[in-house]
Design brief:
heterodimer; A: alpha+beta; Butyryl-Coa Dehydrogenase, subunit A, domain 1; Butyryl-CoA Dehydrogenase, subunit A, domain 3; four-stranded antiparallel β-sheet; 12 helices; B: alpha/beta; nine-stranded mixed β-sheet; 6 helices; 27% helix; ET-Flavoprotein_bsu_CS (chain B)
Amino acid sequence: MDFALTEEHNMIIESARAFVEQELYPFEDEVEKTDQIRPELYESIKQKALEMGFYAANMPEELGGGGLDTVSLTLLEKELGRANFGLQYIVARPSNILQACKGEQVDNYLLPTIRGEKIDCLALTEPNAGSDVRSMECRAERDGDHFVINGTKHFISHADVADYVILFAATGVEDTPRGPKKKITTFLVDMGTPGFTVEQGYHSVSHRGYHNCILNFDNCRVHESQILGEEHRGFDVANEWLGATRLSVAAMCLGRAERALEIATEWAATRKQFGKPIGKNQGVSFKLADMALELKAAELLTLYAAWKDDNGGMTDTDAAMAKLKATEMLQMVSDEAIQILGGMGLMDELPLERIWRDHRVERIWDGTSEIQRHIISRAMLRPYEQ
Amino acid sequence: MKVLVPVKRVVDYNVKVRVKADESGVETANVKMSMNPFDEISVEEAIRLKEAGKATEVVVVSIGTAQSQDTLRNALAMGADRAILVEADGEVEPLAVAKILKGVIAEEEPGLVLLGKQAIDDDSNQTAQMLGALTGWPQATFVSKIELGDGSMEATREVDGGLETIKVNMPAVVSVDLRLNEPRYASLPNIMKAKKKPLDTKAAADYGVDVTPRLKTLKVSEPPARAAGIIVGSVSELVEKLKNEAKVI
């Protein structure tokens, strides 16, 4: 077993850390306070990310992406995760599902998105279809060589800055041994297509500057050439390409937890009360030990899953365990960090209150903690099913 | 013109160094190591010269253990073209480094050697000057600005009380100061390319240099801890203490 990182890994970490500290940290305060990222700021960070080659680092090199394997990408995303979420997402990792683009879709969507000329967003969730995503009500009905889309999507991240949406819609029902099941198709729908409108979503406690939106489709007509993958096979494309997003969530939680732990450790070592650093009290120092332990455990699970992904063997359980552990670890680490700092931990002078707020969505999106536990236990119990 | 840039692997500048228990030196086991920051500046300058079309090739060289390869790869990832590792164990003193570099220069025939003014581990600040003497080449030290001319260069040096601009003929040995430039971080594509760039390994003996240290370190110790200050109650008490306790006035 070899746990050592390579020279390239270390260089990626160093470059990414420098990028995050120099290009993103200085603007965190502004974004946290205004909940907005100025367009000029967005552009300048994007340009720097393109120059550094971090933009679309998840995409294959032959398509113009960074061509990182999953371990390297995980290390990069861990570093990016240290910063405010909205700022770090300017360093876009376009949805892997775009690699299913065919024919003209490659030139119209995939390549411009990798080059940073277009921004994608992904729409699955609906008001009545969260964890039970197949129960979606948004539907696309065939009309000749077109589809007519009707319905609503919500919680659609960064649709306000996107140029098009990767949309999942029901295109019929099929009978299966387990009862009727909706057939889902994936479409590429441009912003501005008649009948398609985007409105600002809800104000979330997490991720200032990174907005969720509501998408409304009212008799929106799209040509069948806009289907990504095959008709009725939307979930096949999703399953093929979207598995690794859980590792992204895990990786970014690791970076945030690391930052919180650094702040808490320095505070414990330097803050003096009753004549000595508070870290000399076991009530504080044992917290640090437990935080470091949880962080390391989550990191090992995440890198293990990433390593398996690179070697062709990552299971749903691997990804679920990494996501579950990393997000719940961040809950513990961010909360304890604030406890160590006391009142100062709650003030927005430091990133701790932000990390604490931001952690909350991580236990919900990309599959709630409960769904992750379901995935893990389902695989354990399956051999015993009659 | 080929530019030769010697780089050294040192304890990272962010690390709070600790003295070994036996006081023989500084703890380097399980400590983050990086390229000497002044050497990063010389690598950056060399790459900029190449980008500006004034240099044709940037060759980096490091003298040290096999682990110095990491430092060389880092320089390659920044944009250097080729690397040479001269393997040598233990401490290699500035004079031995300068002698080896003289051998490398004889092989590589660079038009310019850019060195960091000193390494942040031993702070010797000797290698560039010794190399200048050994080669007989003009030297410009503590340089904060370089302007290449035809067969010569103008170098701005940071000296006590201001800046001094001198003209030196090429080839020359130049040691760089902090304000020359701000080194870049390696971009992702360059990091990926670095492993494909050539890295030759040599031994100190290949250059006929005996690297046995000429100096013996007797003891390395922590700087004395600073004593706590006191708050005086009045100006007259302050003057009294300065006169009679500190004896400075």
